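User: Hi! Is it possible to get a structure for several chains at once, not just one? Here's what I have:
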Amino acid sequence: MKEIEVTLTVNKRVHTVNVAPRMTLVDCLRDILRLTGTHVGCEHGVCGACSVMFDGEPVRSCLMFAVQAEGHEITTVEGLVGEDGEISDLQDSFWECHAMQCGYCTPGMLISSHALLMENPSPDDHDIREAISGNLCRCTGYQQIVEAVKMAAERRQEGL
Amino acid sequence: MGQTTTLSNYRYVSRKRRTKEDRRFITGRGKFVADVEVPGMKHVAVLPSPHPRANILKIDTSAAMSMSGVHYVLTGDELARETSSLFHGLDLPNVKWHPLAVGMTRYAGEWVAAVVADTRYIAEDAAELIEVEYESLPAAVDTEKMIDEDQPLVHPEHGSNILFRKTWEWGPVADDFASMPHTISYRARWGRSSTVPIETFGVVAKWDETTEVMDVWASIQMPQYQDQIAAVLRMPMNNVRVHNDVDVGGSYGVKRGIKHTVLVCYLAKRLGVPVRFIEDRLDNMSGGDAHGPDRIFDVTMAFDDDGVIKSMKMRALDDVGAYPGRAPLQLGKPMTALCGPYRVNSIEYEAISVTSNKTGQVPVRGFGQAPTNFAVETGLERVAKFLGLDRVEVRARNLVRKDEFPWKIPPGSLYDSGDFHAVLDSAIKTSDWQELISRRDALRAEGKLAGVGIATCLEPGGGNNIFEYLFNPKLEITTFVESVLIKVEPSGAITAVMCTTTSGQGHETMVSTIAGEELERDPDTIRVVHGDSLEALPTRSPVASRMTIVLGTATSNAAREIKDKMITIAAYDIGVEKEQIEYADGEFSMRGEPEKKLSWEEVCHIAHKQFHRMPPGQELGLQAYSVQQVPGAGQLPNEKNEVPLYPCFSFQAHVPLVEIDRDTGKVKLHDYYIAHDCGTAINPDIVRGMIIGGVAHGIGAALYEKFEYDPDGQLLAGTFVDYLLPSSHEIPTVTDVEHCTPSPLTSLGQKGSGEGGYLGAPAAVASAVNDALRPLDIEINELPIRARDIETALYEKSK
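Assistant: Yes, the chains can be modeled jointly so their relative placement is included. Here is the combined structure:
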């Protein structure tokens, strides 16, 4: 199958890749760019494990083709880490609250929570549950995730 | 937030501490099987059968083989010729099981062929070019009809669709029934649901011709995985190296993957290239290891005027689908707590395992205990209703009392410890039961359907699996060992080697916390690694709520041995008897003369490098391993078929408040309270997560999840659009309160906590839904109770 050249920005770095037109964005991120933090769960747009930021909005990278990312800006879980390698306050809150068990849905949860906090710096429980409702987790029952997002928001409010 | 009623006497154990594992997950640096990249690796796609039951007349692979980028197309005949049949728990010599169908397909979704290609995309394209000629046959689908009606045979050579049927009687059942004024009989049904991890199963295999080693990386949680790979591939076990450092993206029992693994290993050896197979979601739900118990219970309870239950007869009919594997044994594990936490004097138990033209059943969280607990709790509800008694009071009257431990139940298990009444009281107090009832009644006064639920559950932990023997005497297994090796380096750094994978249970945190506690060293400085199967000590895998009990106790033992060695070395060096040395905070000092001391680092240095300062005969270095027996295990059943099964028993009480939409039948969970006792909690955040996560699983099983089949045997729920998993909207905030009754059988009093939430929640939610429906005289004892089931029941009632 003829490959197409695609230029996309991932975690602030510009990449040019050759992909088959049918290659999904998540396969491009994982298999070509080797950013394996983004996970594949259902490949039909329900579980949210493959969530990435696409021009500042959370999207499911299993439902997009890599060619659609031409000229666009993507942030994956790897890109949530600061340039100095420091984990973000949101990541730190996830750790502090043990907002995961197996860790498989965690990157997607972090992306959706990151998107929420960009829009709404002081979400209540309902806002958080709404924001992560498109991300399935089978381990935690969601509660410690909700607590982690709340903690991150509070820390930002307090300027910690 | 969780509350705790006990304060930790420990330095690290039971204290709020960050986990070891989370750091890699929050940065996207977990190493899951799909992240494993072996140079030259090829990719597998499988072709599923569209027919529930069909003869395979012909397979034409030529078009697929001729596609560019395709390396091989494998069919069942070749694989069955070159490998042995996969393992079943039961003794079923005429039920053959291979990764690819041989001659006949037995469920819709069964793999008929496998393609190996440069990419998964090409492999899937090629799979579509395989031409299979089928002769479609009527399928055996209705579970109940398998027992005595004339049905198509799933395995004609076996001669019946019944795989196992046996009745046990423990205690004077007939006399107890005769002595009781009341009996009630009821049916409870557990729908075909499962744990459905977000990561599907995957495996990578590489065969090295020169070393003759098969390297396997897999998303695995399975006892005897390497044993079975080696046996089926007909090679010695030391030719198989399973890498246990693969992070497993959720399992809760189901990640078995033996057929995937045999398929991939065979291909890797046959083709001389590394091969990987990562299921997509459709592969997983129709043909993978996805389905759980599918069970019909018929129960009769005999009880007195006070609602005290004396005896119980239970028949459990379980549909394991086309290939049984270990699934039928899931009728055996529940014997461990067959009557729940209640003081039942005698039990008759009939276990029937049938095969059908459905996807095979695999082990699920609790190994069959969750359905059984639902069936028992349904009985408590029915007894209360029959006598017009309070549901909580009936439970309290039947619970084992705290001065009665160890308590022996009729099948022989010894409940080690507990304070069931205190935990039940705690749930009632935390939920403010009377207030909850008032809120329910206020909702009802507004014309709504509302209900409060109650359920208790016992969580057996430790897993000695002696019940296997009761199902198959050839499985004469009386233990389920677990091991750890602890090493202290010359610098003083500590490394612990555990011998299994981990799938979210936090084993690295548990081992480092316990080792740190025993050695008074900061757990954050202790490294925990997962030895591969060639390096590992004996292990039976992280199932059965057993790791904290068995691996945790092994960790204590190994750490205590190291401490003893270090004291021996320090005593010799200081020139006193061992008893005169005390160890605290990293220093070995002489009692009464504390200035005579050696630091942790000095003792390590001596042990590794200063032979001249070592006590004569003392082993060099500082290392200790412990191979831990399951506490209380080690014997076969006696002549009455009594045997102590799992050793440690955790206990929970659940109280939810639900509201049901009258128009749609949709259930909304308003509140959820849970009181739990798993002995000493090693890491409270992990325990809390396990419990709430287990509750979420249970809510799914109670209200949403089912692998539904149509009457012809076609799976109707093969995606996340039709197999509904609860989201953050469906799972309420859970208020949990902890109670601690330490187990007398483990090193620090710890018990299991991985399963309890899932064992109690289905019964509790069903109890709440039925409380809501009671004013309409509707009762539903079939899970899941979906919105449409309630809507239908409401409609029928209104006619």
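The longest strand of chain B covers residues 648-660. The two ends of chain B are 46 Å apart (CA to CA).

User: Great, thank you!
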